[in-house]
Amino acid sequence: MSLNEILGSAISGLAASQAGLRSVSNNIANVSTPGYAREKVSLATGVTAGQVNGVRFGEPSRIADRFLEGTVFRRSGEMGAADVASSYLNRLQSLLGAPGAEYGLPSRLDAIDASAVAMTGAQSSPQTIAAFTSNVQDAISSMNQLGSDVASLRSDVQSEIADSVDRINGLLVRINDLNGTVSRLDGTGQSSAGVADQRMSAIEELSGLIKVNVRHQSDGRLTIDTASGIPLLDNRLRQLSLPLPGGAAQTNYPAITLRFADTSSGPGAATGDKIDSAAVSGKLGGLIDLRDRALPVFTEKLGVLFSGLAKTLNKVSNDGTTVPAPNQLTGRPTALTSADRLGFTGSAVFAVTKPNGELVASTTVDFSALGAG
């Protein structure tokens, strides 16, 4: 071996060691960096004319477990749906009030029951009647306000759906651009590890917004589908399109459609696919479930509660009146005589009605003004 060959082998070894040290230092420096994957320099024996001639090394390559990455993407979608559901249901719970809270709806309903017992008991007084009426009014006002608050909550969900759609579109554009960069670098034999890390970070964020399936292609590109198989990115980029809202009182919402991206990455022709259910999972799926199922179901149950309270109060009130008049009135002897002092106070209304309930005449008797006799 000539002196030049010896020096060439030594220099190649130093260069390989330097490349390895560069990768090791990058790995150590980014050990806590989100989205970073370990990189490694590949080494091969240098052979010239059948003889070993130093060492050859390539560009740093990204070392990552694709199975684990796929698991992270799937779990991110489930976590995104659970997080957003927890956030809005906690807000709904705060509107209801905790059990036992003084101004919560459960406490207001309990107050109606307690004041009704007091009003019909032996200690009944004008004060207990006023307390019952006030408690009923408070409960009705609370339910009306709660209904308005839930409608506002649903509007907030729709606004967040719009924000999520915008963010998904932005991430898809970024991933598509990084796809092209990775493919170009791989094709020229350069390292794409850094760009691939950026792409994986974008996909991880995307998977938290909508559950995705990711597939690797031979040219270094990635294709992305929703969990239900709707393509988002392959040879062509798609964008989500959310119709403009119909107003604050809107109860039915149109589906999110998909369109091909044009040259400016804006929405183009429709693909025929749409997202109209929580099956897409992720934050977007959780928001759709809240908007279309959870909050409307709660509103329906609140309406049933309100109707039940109204029917019960009306029934009790009607049972205590003589309208419609009974077919038979039955009296019973009392110990009172015409000379007894009754001591009535307050006033009463005496009315005469037709058989159909129409008022004919009425008069008010003020017992307090009649004196003690």
Outline of this structure?
This protein is an alpha+beta fold and 373 residues long. The protein has helices at 3-29, 66-96, 105-120, 126-187, 193-209, 282-319, and strands spanning 39-40, 43-48, 51-57, 61-62, 212-216, 222-226, 231-233, 238-241, 256-261, 267-275, 347-353, 359-366. α2 (66-96) runs antiparallel to α4 (126-187), α3 runs antiparallel to α4 and α4 runs antiparallel to α5.
Largest sheet: 3 strands, antiparallel
Specify Rg, calculated over alpha carbons.
Answer: 38 Å
N-to-C order of helices and strands: HEEEEHHHHEEEEEEHEE
Number of helix segments?
A: 6
Can you give the mean pLDDT? 84
- Please estimate the helix content: 40-55%
Rounded to the nearest angstrom, the distance between the terminal CA atoms is 139 Å
Detailed description of the structure:
The chain folds into 3 domains: 3-62, no CATH class; 66-299, no CATH class; 322-327 and 341-373, no CATH class. It has 373 residues and is of the alpha+beta class. The mean pLDDT is 84. Helix content is 51%, strand content 17%. It contains 6 helices and 12 strands. Strand 6 and strand 7 form a beta hairpin. The protein has helices at 3-29, 66-96, 105-120, 126-187, 193-209, 282-319; strands at residues 39-40, 43-48, 51-57, 61-62, 212-216, 222-226, 231-233, 238-241, 256-261, 267-275, 347-353, 359-366. Helix 3 (105-120) runs antiparallel to helix 4 (126-187). The protein has a 3-stranded antiparallel beta sheet with strand order 5-6-7.
